[in-house]
Each structure stands twice: as C-alpha cells, then as structure tokens.
Amino acid sequence: MIFLGIDLGTSGLRALLVDADGTPLGVAERSYAACHPHPGWSEQDPAQWISAFDSAMDEMREKCPRFAELRGIGVAGHMHGATLLDATGKVLRPCILWNDTRSAAEAAKLDALPEMRALSGNIVFPGFTAPKLEWVRRHEPEIFAKTAKVLLPAAYLNYYLTGEYVADMSDSAGTSWLDVGKRQWSERLLEVSHMRPDQMPRLVEGSDAAGGLRKELAEKWGLSGPVTVAGGAGDNAAAACGIGALNEGQGFVSVGTSGVLLAARDGYAPAPETAVHTFCHAVPGQWYQMGVMLSATDSLNWLARITGEKPADLTAPLGDDLQTPGAVRFLPYLSGERTPHNDADIRGGFTGLSAGTTRQDLTRAVLEGVAFGLRDSLDALVGTGVKLDKIIAIGGGTASRYWLKVLATVLGIPVQLPASGEFGAALGAARLGQIAATGAAPETVVTLPEIQTEIEPDAGKTEAFAVGHQAFRAAFPGLKAIQ
Question: Which of 18, 105, 396, 421 is most buried per CB count within 10 Å?
C-alpha cells in the first residue's frame, strides 16, 4: 500500500507519495498566485487548486509505477480561508485567504463579545473565517444570501475528492465557530456570527476517514481498490505530524515566509489574552498552541529584493561565528503581527542606523529581529504552561546556519535540524491518510525524524542577546501600548 499527502499552500500545491514506512516515492509541485484587488485583500480562485491538483496527479501517475497501490489520501491546507458554495456546490466568489485583512472591523466587533474567546479559546483575528463572513454579509449581501456551505481550502479539496462536505478539527479550530475544547461546532458562536449549523461541513478528526475517493477519480487514475480520504489538517497541525510533534514537550519552529513556534499539548489550556493560538491537533484528544509572526523569511526576502541580492548571498558573509547583537535594530512586522501583539496595522522599521551602517549590519539586524519576534511568541507560550527542552527547526530559513545559532541563543533552547528528507505538511498529511486507511495507532505512524544536527545556545552570548531583546523592544515605543 502507498499513501498520498497533499500540501495545499497559498502559493502552490505539493503532492507527496510515500510507502508504508514513510519513504518518499514521488513528488509533484504546482504553483499559482493570489489576487490582491484592493489594499489588504488577498483572494484565490479555488479552480486554481483543482487544476494544480489534477495536473500534479497526472505527473504522479506517469512517474510512479506504484501509483495503482494508492489506499489513503490526506490533505493539509492553508487555514482560515472562506470558500463559499451555493446549494449546488458551485463556488460563489474567490476564496478570501488567511492573510486578507479587510475584516479587521468585523473581527474587533466579534472579539468584543464575551462568548467568542470563552468558547473558541482564541482572539478573533482579522484573518479568521468568521469575520470574513461578517464582511460578506455587510458588503456582498447577495452572495451571503446564497451561501449554503462554507469550506476551508483543505475541506474544499476533500469535497472534490469525496463529494462530501467534511472538515477536520484542527483546521476548523481557526474559524472562530468551533468550541475548541469540546471539538464541535458551537451553536452560540454561529448564532452571534449570523451563521447556521447547516452551513458547516461535517466534522471528523484529522486521522479519521472523511470519505472514500469518488468513483470518477478512481477510474480516471486506474485504481481498483478502495481509497480512504482522511479528515486531514490545517497546515501547521500537518507539519507537526510530519515532524512527530504529538505530545507535550514536543514542538517546532518554522522559519518560512511566516514564522511559527508550535508546541503540542496533552490538554486544552487556552490563553487568548496572550494572542497565542490554541487549536485542536490532527489526532483525537490532543491540542497544540502556537505563536505566529507574519514576516519571517519574508523579512530577509524583502531586504534581498531592495538590495538586489539573493537571501543566501546576504547571509553567507556572516560566516559561522555568532556575533553579539549590533547597534542596528529591525522590527520585522512588514505585514502586521499576530503573536503577541494582535496588530494588523503595525509595520516594520530599522533604528540605530548611521553613516557607517553596512549591508551586513542590516542583514544581522533582520535575522536578530525575526528571532526576537519568535522569542516574544515563546514567552507567550511559556505563560500558558508550555515547556520545551528542545525544538525542531523547519522552513527555508534553516538553510542559514548562522540564523539557527541566533535562534537557539535567543530562544535559550537547543534547535534540532532534521536529516535530509521529507518532514513537512505533505508528509504529515500522508501519515494521516495512512492512519485513516489502515486503522494504525497515530503514535506508530507519526514519529520523530532522524536528527542531523543539534545547535546549542551560545552560553557566552546568551546574556548579550537577552539585553538585545530588551533593546529591541525599547527601540520601538509603539510596542509599549500593545504589550
């Protein structure tokens, strides 16, 4: 038997085929773009997802002789997106994505209702799904009146695969409609959001079966045996499954376009006042908490773009020896921020510039600023009871060994780098497909990767970076009002 994992991302789709041991058998990737018709808007036509998926499957079938052995599929997707369908299953408008901020006013109004945080366990962020539907209700009433179902991106791909309206707990936790502690839709949260229970998909655990592959697709792909489609997961829950973070004390730091610090939890302990996200995990009885910053490698990519260099060419001159923080500070909030500030309007900046400031100084400040922002998330997580003795690093930013040393020293915990191979959201999704298809216990499939390197905090520079973190906060007085 083999299993398929799909990572439905904001900028592209990644399909991964693995065997029962998790060994990769084939990979196919497709890219697509988001549309930004107005400032702060971010939308995508779901037809792009289906086209990318179909094309990836055509390549996979051609490249992988064992494709006919497919027995389980899992889908991971970018969270919070609002895909609106009419009573016939037709898409009514482009999906409003997670990084769309048009509904900030609606989010603030919903967040002010006492039951929202009490039941959902989270602040109602502008990027969440409920405020998006409130915006549609106010500004596109004809669309709102026709909306029969609201699906998240991963749930929409599951609908294409199975013909059923079904969503998993981890993804649904980011809607502000789920009672995250009870793992069920909240009639009260729906009511105050002007929504109905019948507009919601059926809920399943991410490792449970969502349905079977549609006959039309099975025939098109030349499959004779039954294929189980798992509930799947939101992208970060799937990434946690990909690196084996299921239980208390396990977690990862993702240094990608955005920055994520995630910790698995054995129980439900929300702390919305910290702007920490508390969501259901992709397996039953588990939750996870995470801090999110919106511009991690995006900050380095921005600096590379305006200097005309590649990111790797900016970081290479820093060498291997960690330097203490310099005089230049960088606030990495180019697109606003979530944890711990919950401020869609805050923006980035440099301070401490002088006539002698070099490009290398700016690069170091960017790397340090992102690390300091992630330290803010760690402090918020620790305040909820999280304990991390070590953490696995994933994402494109891990290509810089210098950045990893900064992260380990700023966070104050060893940072582990997995050996080469698959360990991201696509693998996590494939693992969920395997569990759903075989009935295997999650802990036997969701295992930790082989660790290639462990980077310890630089004890001799820990105090200097602690002082640097405080200086980072003090350098931007605007932060004082949102601490």
Answer: 18
Assess whether 235 carries a catalytic annotation: yes
Is 428 within the bounds of a domain? no
Task: For residue 320, give its domain range.
Answer: 246-422+450-483
Q: Of 270, 480, 277, 247, which Cα lies nearest the Cα of 377?
A: 277
The CA distance from 299 to 291, in Å, is 17
List, for residues 10-57, the tens digit of each pLDDT value.
889 999 999 999 999 999 999 999 999 998 899 999 999 999 999 999
**Domain assignment of residue 217, yes or no:** yes
Indicate which residue of 235, 298, 361, 376 is catalytic. 235
DSSP state of 480: G
Task: Assess whether 250 and 191 both reside in one domain.
Answer: no
Q: pLDDT tens across 406-434, in order?
A: 999 999 999 999 987 778 899 999 999 99
Q: Among the three residues 203, 236, 269, which one is the final residue of a domain in this structure? A: 236
pLDDT tens, position by position, 123-144: 999 899 999 999 999 999 999 9
List residues bridging with 43 in a β-sheet: 35, 96
Quote the CA–CA distance of 48 and 33 in Å, as a whole number.
Answer: 9
Distances 13 to 33, 122, 382, 417 between C-alpha atoms, Å: 11, 28, 34, 24
Q: How many domains does the chain have?
A: 2
User: What is the pTM (predicted TM-score) of this model?
Assistant: 0.91
